[in-house]
Structures are given as structure tokens and as C-alpha cells.
Amino acid sequence: MSPMFRALSIRNYRLWASGAIVSNTGTWMQRVAQDWLVLTQLTDNSGVAVGITTALQFAPVLLLAPWIGALTDRLDRRKILITTQITSAVLGLVLGLLVISGLAELWMVYLLAAGLGVVAAVDGPARQAFVSELVPVEYLPNAVGLNSASFNAGRLLGPGIAGLLINWLGTGPVFLINGFSFIAVVFSLTHMNRDELRLQERPGRGNRSARAGLVYARSHPEIALIMCIVGMVAMLGLNTQITTALMARTEFGKGAGEYGLLGSVMAIGSLGGALLAARRERPTVKLVIGAAAAFGVSSIVSALMPTYWTFALMLIPSGLAALTMLTAANATVQLATTPAMRGRVMALYMAITMGGTPIGSPIIGWIGEEFGARWTILVGGMGTLLAVGMALLWLSRSATLREAVKASDTRPLMTVTKTSDRAAATGTPEAAAVARQTATRTSGATENSAA
């Protein structure tokens, strides 16, 4: 099998990927339909209302994810995911029935968006960490890249299909289709061979708290750097569900079909970035920084495009850069974290990356109403470049960070020892220092023996 698809040689991963592509397509259909419902049917082109809806859907991730991550490290992640998929299906079906019956009001959409946010807070860390149970560690970067490819294949198909269905049938049926799409993931999860799963290492008694994930991330400065960059970009630059809706509706005077097409065009670049990530043997911190810079520049250029079609074309490099940054960041954080801590560290990662959205989306929506749609993208691009500049300044001034980044980019997979993890989780500065020294010594010893 081609190295790009080697994770698919694992039966359980094939089941997971096949269910995910169906569900991801349905999820993107719902996102487009939800934003269009709020923007055109329940309000008079209110960017703030769309921003509030988005914020409610992502705020629970910011508030709950660290505690959910601790739970994820203790419980069966497969069972957690089955529960979240069923709950998401119910919420999607309820919204669809409300819209079709003509009973839907803005506050109902807000309430259901918040409900989806709570489910996402549980689902996200479990989903991220579950991939490591499906494949060997040497396949993990490939599996993360293919996961992103699946997500963005759904993003490529979903908005276009949603735009057509909204024109033909309205938004209600789109929500119903998304509700039924979760059946595919539940089927894949229930038909896996559980004996072939690589079950996670359970945390020790003194290493079970949500705080342990924060301490672990702080003791690994390369992880902290990645989270700072991606968090800033997510808050200001990755609000495409708002920015493309406003650009299509208010700047270019387009309808639902053209809005959905913008999402599909951007997904072309995102899918390309995901496939490139799947070919990459290992991600690096430098790649995260470089991709973030490329995203900032391409976002600013896209905001200056004079026509609908030139704007649409510029979304391709934006999607490529954004997805390269996100997949590299995701895989780097996972590979720098041992299995017993992965649920909590990934929960913290999700809280920062997804939690930035409820902070930034109302601001971006307000900017769109006050200054115009183009400024929503310009502010995101400039904010992204500011984050990159701050990261480079941090790197230039911190020798400890430079050493950690160099070690992360060069050491063999998973060389951080259990001893260093236990020390990092105790919470004292001395323990954190021991953790870093142990990890560095282990990395150096492994590299020397390999040479």
C-alpha cells in the first residue's frame, strides 16, 4: 500500500475512516445550513447572530474540555464516542423537525448549538486520542493526516450539497440528513475488533487530575508554543463560517448555492494539505510556524480580491496553509505526549484551538457589521501574522524553547519516558525541570544508538 494510505492497512482504522467521511459530510452540511438559517431566515443578515451561534457551539469546549480530558483518559474512548454520536444525531434531528414544522426561533438555534457544543467538548478529546488506539505509533502521523483528509473531503462535499439542498428543499431537510449521517460512525465503532485496539495506558492514582494535562504542557515548551500559535489563529483567523457567509451575502450579493461553493473551494486546498500531511513521515514545530505565516498572508490577499471568483480562488491556498498548520500541530502534540496523558493534553489543545472561536467569532461578526465583510478576513490575517511574530520572538529569546523545538523536530517517535511524565505531572518547578532533562537525555541516547 502507498505510504500515503498505510494507516488504511489496519482494519479498525478503515472502519473508522469510512464512517467518518459520511458523518463529516453531514456535519459540514449542517454548519452551512445553520449559518444560512440564522443569517437569512431568523435575522436580517446579522453577523453578530451568526457569531453568537458559533460561540455557543464552541464555548463548552473551552469551559469543559480539561475535565473531560481527564475523564477520557480513564474511560473506554470507543464507548464515549458511540454516546456522543448518538446524542449529536438526536440534536440534528430535533433542529430539522423544528425548522420543517415552522416552529424554529433564534433562541432555539442558540440552545441546540450550545447542546452540540457540550457534545463536542466530550467528543473532541476522545476522538483525537482514540486514533492512537487504532494504529501503531509509527503510523500515527499518517493516521492524523488521513483523518484531516476525511474531514476536509466532507468539507469539500458538504457545503456544495447543502447549498443545492437549501435552494431546492430549504434548510430543514439538511439537518435531518446530518442527523442520520451519524449512523455510519456508530456502525463503524460497534463493528471494530476490540482485541486489536491498542488500549491506552491508565493514569496512576496521583496522575488523574485535569490539572496534570496543563502541568504536562507547561513542562514541554514546544507544546506550549504550538498551542499559543494555533489558539491565536483559531480565535481571529479560522472563523470562515462567518467570514465566507458575510462575503457571499453582503459583499458579492450571492445566495446559498454560491455560499456553499465557497466552502467547497476552500476545502480543495484543505484536502490538498491533508494529503500532503499524510505523506509526511513526521511533523515539525517549524512547519507549524511556517504554515501559520502562509495562512496569514493568503488571508490578507483574499480579503483584497475584487470579485467573487477571485476571492474563491484565493481560498484554495488559504485552506492549504490552514490545514497544514492544524495537522502538523495536532500530530506534533500527540507524538510529544505519552498515552496516559494524551486525553488530557489533547483536551487542553482542543480547549485552546476550538475555545478561541467563541471568543473571536462575536468580535469578527461585529467587525463585519461595523466595517464590512472584508475587514473580518483582514483582521484574522493580521492577527495570525502577529501570532507568528510573537512565536519567533519567543524562540529568539528562549534557549530552553529552542532546545525543546530542536529535540521535538529530530527525536524518534515517543521517546519521552514514563518517569518524565510522572515528574512533570507532580506540578513542582523542580519536577518539570527533571522531566525536560530526562526527555532530552532519552532523546539524545536514542539518536546516538541509531547512528
Automatic annotation (TrEMBL):
Start and end residues of each Major facilitator superfamily (MFS) profile domain: 1-399
Region of interest called Disordered, as start-end residue ranges on this chain: 418-451
InterPro entries in the cross-refs: MFS_dom (IPR020846), MFS_trans_sf (IPR036259), TM_effector (IPR010290)
Main location: membrane
Transmembrane spans: 12-29, 49-68, 80-104, 165-189, 223-247, 259-278, 285-305, 311-333, 345-367, 373-395
Topology term for the membrane: Multi-pass membrane protein
Keywords: Cell membrane, Membrane, Transmembrane, Transmembrane helix, Transport
A Pfam family per the record: MFS_3
PANTHER family for the chain: INTEGRAL MEMBRANE EFFLUX PROTEIN-RELATED (PTHR23513), STAPHYLOFERRIN A TRANSPORTER (PTHR23513:SF11)
Protein name: MFS transporter
Lineage of the species this protein comes from: Bacteria, Bacillati, Actinomycetota, Actinomycetes, Kineosporiales
